[in-house]
Write a structure and sequence with these properties.
- There is one protein chain.
- This protein is of the alpha+beta class.
- The chain is 47% helix and 16% strand.
- The protein is built from 29 helices and 20 strands.
- Strands 1, 2, 3, 4, 5 and 6 form a six-stranded mixed sheet that branches. Strands 12-16-14-15-13 form a five-stranded mixed sheet. The chain has a four-stranded antiparallel sheet with strand order 18-19-17-20, covered by helices on one side.
- The N and C termini lie far apart (75 Å).
Length: 716
């Protein structure tokens, strides 16, 4: 453990103007406050904040950060208050310590909830001052170095998993490669001990076998640079066991199949010399295809810059070479700490970092801590593709991103109104996977809104959070609209007065805080309209319609509705399919069909054709039935109709079928071979059509074909 004078000397060695008195007072304050507290290792607890402060001196942080490191646990673990720290050490230190203090008073629902809540606070604090994250990383690094003292295996595993999921990616995002690598290594050894030990053993074997090769490669590369008049320093770096293991997992490759266990760095004075050195390497050695990456012209989001290339190098060995300047190397190792914006006491706001702004947007849009944590993890894992806007701006995205991810990366409003995309000048589907170097132009429309389908293929946390937020907000609005219409029609149909004042009196019956809550529950199917009617009019008897429905067969419900209804049927308009309303997959209703609605618990209304056999199971639940009709919007939309087709098993028959559908302006969205013999195929085909008449026209065209022996609508 560092002694008091040793810590002060370390800080003064790189910052002669550091506040020596405040550092001494903070050291003594931490010792006194933590007193006789012990760590699981048996060491005095105050040794932990002292070691954290020692790690921070290696980052060369200012005295305010070092003091905050010494005091970071005092508010949580002792009787110290933030106000006391402010009085003794000033506002800046107090804000840093407050940002690091965990939310101890929150009622925890789960371990994941606790982790998410703490991470929320860390994110908000580091958005105000990035030093909060640097201190937190030092805190986590020392805890990981002493992880082996934790007695419970499950607790060690939880800490290691949290480190891999959150803190190592955060270290990578701010470019702190050394910290990230050490965190990953310790967590990897804890979570996958056998794999870790196996890779370490193989690396030791290779080191012994190739002990002469590495110096020879370095010597040859130095000679190559010198012969071409390039002043450079060359070094070799062995990849970490965790990075090797991850690459083995990603490529599904064995240890022996990996070519870049060793990486060699060529460090030069300026950017122009980087490309000169690259020319020397590529002119002398064969380049390995798809192993070249230029992070100088397109830096990583964390500011990392370097040229990476794979070659068959000296000694006929396949190696990776990294070429960078001295400044790039410093930033590559120390990341944001190397920039030193706050060396003169300036405040380094995290909001200046694009990725922190994006995490803050996810924080605003998430409905609960677990969702926030899930989307944040998606956002932080950092295998990137780089795409360009039409103006040439660079957007970094995770691998497998789509134009929708790109749109949300540009701006939330662009994502919300995205209707299409041009990739390299060509209109492409929104689910297209983007490649490095693609130029993407997003087409927008004010009439557009996020689709529930998008969530199936987007990969960024920001896009997922925005889509879920829209669906969540609009789903409730849809349920409220639907529930209100259901109640108004029901009361009117029973010749009873409907008033919101009457609903206010029965809110407690349904554990609702407002009338909108009642409407939403009715629309969602959690409460039936009849439940509300009986609460408002407790003495009201069963309606005539209910009696009639119970006494008849379901297919004749069509006649009952015509006979008994009072007023117009409820129109499906302004309701977005997939939210408050969904079309039943058993009968695939189309505009032109007579339809009926079934209120389904938690899902709103399922729309069926009036002759659908699935309705029989609801015969004893007339309170779930709704008389509904198609709204005007249905005429302008495409719907799915399903056909059952018997098709001749001969060359060209499937092509003729698809051509007939296309000539009649239909689009086959799904095709399934149900049964097959030597003579024919039996198919189920989903076709996008405007309405029932459109589907009927397609059926007529298919019936006239020689290759189609049977075609009919598949209602069940």
């Amino acid at each position: 453990m560092l002694r008091q004078y040793e810590l002060v000397d370390l800080v003064k060695s790189y910052d002669p103007d550091a506040d020596e008195d405040a550092l001494n007072r903070a050291y003594v304050f931490a010792m006194k406050k933590h007193g006789a507290q012990l760590r699981e290792s048996g060491d005095p607890y105050y040794s932990h904040p002292v070691e954290v402060a020692g790690i921070l001196t290696k980052f060369k942080l200012d005295s305010a950060s070092i003091i905050a490191g010494l005091l970071h646990d005092t508010v949580e673990d002792t009787d110290t208050t933030v106000e006391e720290i402010r009085a003794l050490f000033g506002d800046q230190v107090a804000q840093l310590v407050d940002g690091l203090t965990k939310l101890a008073m929150i009622e925890q629902k789960s371990a994941n909830n606790k982790q998410a809540e703490n991470f929320r606070k860390l994110l908000l604090a580091m958005s105000e001052d990035i030093r909060v994250l640097l201190i937190k990383l030092a805190d986590r690094l020392h805890n990981m170095r002493t992880l082996h003292f934790v007695k419970k295996p499950e607790k060690r595993a939880r800490i290691a998993r949290e480190t891999l999921d959150i803190y190592a990616p955060l270290a990578e995002r701010i470019g702190m490669q050394e910290v990230k690598s050490e965190l990953e290594e310790i967590a990897f050894a804890e979570l996958h001990k056998d794999a870790h030990d196996s890779i370490v053993a193989r690396l030791n074997f290779l080191r012994e076998q190739g002990s002469n090769i590495v110096p020879k490669i370095i010597q040859q590369l130095e000679k190559d640079m010198e012969e071409n008049g390039i002043k450079a320093s060359v070094s070799g770096r062995e990849k970490t066991p965790y990075s090797i293991w991850r690459k083995m997992q990603q490529k599904n490759a064995s240890f022996e199949q990996l070519s870049d266990i060793m990486a060699f760095r060529i460090i030069v004075d300026d950017v122009a010399t980087c490309y000169q050195a690259l020319g020397v390497v590529h002119s002398k050695y064969h380049m390995v295809p798809r192993r070249f990456k230029d992070y100088i012209s397109t830096p990583k989001p964390n500011g990392y810059q370097s040229i990476h290339t794979g070659v068959i190098g000296p000694e006929n060995t396949r190696i990776e070479i990294q070429i960078r300047t001295h400044e790039m190397h410093e930033i590559g190792e120390k990341g944001v700490a190397a920039h030193w914006a706050y060396k003169q006491g300036q405040k380094a706001e995290g909001k200046h970092y694009r990725w922190i702004r994006e995490l803050l947007e996810i924080l605003e849009q998430a409905s609960n801590p677990e969702e926030f944590l899930e989307n944040t993890k998606l956002e932080m894992y950092n295998d990137q593709v780089f795409c360009f806007t039409p103006k040439g701006d660079l957007i970094g995205l995770p691998v497998n991103s789509t134009p929708v991810d790109f749109a949300y990366a540009v701006h939330s409003s662009v994502g919300d109104t995205c209707v299409g995309a041009k990739i390299n000048g060509e209109i492409r589907p929104l689910r297209t996977v983007l490649q490095n170097g693609d130029q993407v132009e997003i087409l927008t429309s004010k009439a557009q809104h996020p689709s529930t389908e998008w969530e199936r293929f987007v990969v960024t946390g920001k896009a997922k959070a925005a889509i879920r937020r829209y669906v969540r907000a609009n789903k409730r609005d849809q349920f409220i609209t639907l529930g209100q219409e259901i109640l108004e029609r029901l009361f009117k149909g029973e010749n009873l007065e409907f008033s919101e004042k009457a609903l206010v009196n029965v809110l407690q019956n349904f554990e609702a805080e407002s009338i909108e809550d009642v409407y939403a529950k009715v629309g969602e199917g959690l409460v039936t309209g009849w439940d509300v009617l009986k609460a408002v009019y407790p003495a009201y008897k069963q309606s005539k319609l209910e009696k009639v429905v119970k006494s008849i067969k379901v297919p004749s419900f069509k006649k009952v509705i015509k006979k008994e209804k009072k007023g117009e049927p409820l129109k499906i308009k302004g309701l977005i399919p997939g939210m408050a309303v969904h079309f039943a997959g058993c009968c695939h209703p189309l505009p032109g069909d007579r339809i009926v609605g079934i209120v389904t618990t938690g899902k709103g209304v399922a729309v069926h054709t009036i002759d659908c056999k699935a309705l029989e199971k609801y015969a004893d639940e007339p309170e779930r039935w709704l008389d509904i009709a198609w709204g005007e919007e249905a005429e302008n939309e495409m719907h799915t109709g399903r056909l059952k087709v018997m098709l001749a098993n001969e060359p060209g028959s499937l092509a003729e079928l698809s051509n007939l559908v296309a000539r009649n302006n239909g689009n086959i969205s799904n095709l399934n071979i149900v049964y097959r013999t030597i003579s024919y195929f039996e198919l189920l085909i989903d076709i996008d059509v405007k309405d029932l008449k459109h589907l009927t026209d397609i059926i007529a065209a298919l019936k006239a074909s020689k290759v189609v022996s049977y075609v009919a609508r598949a209602n069940q």
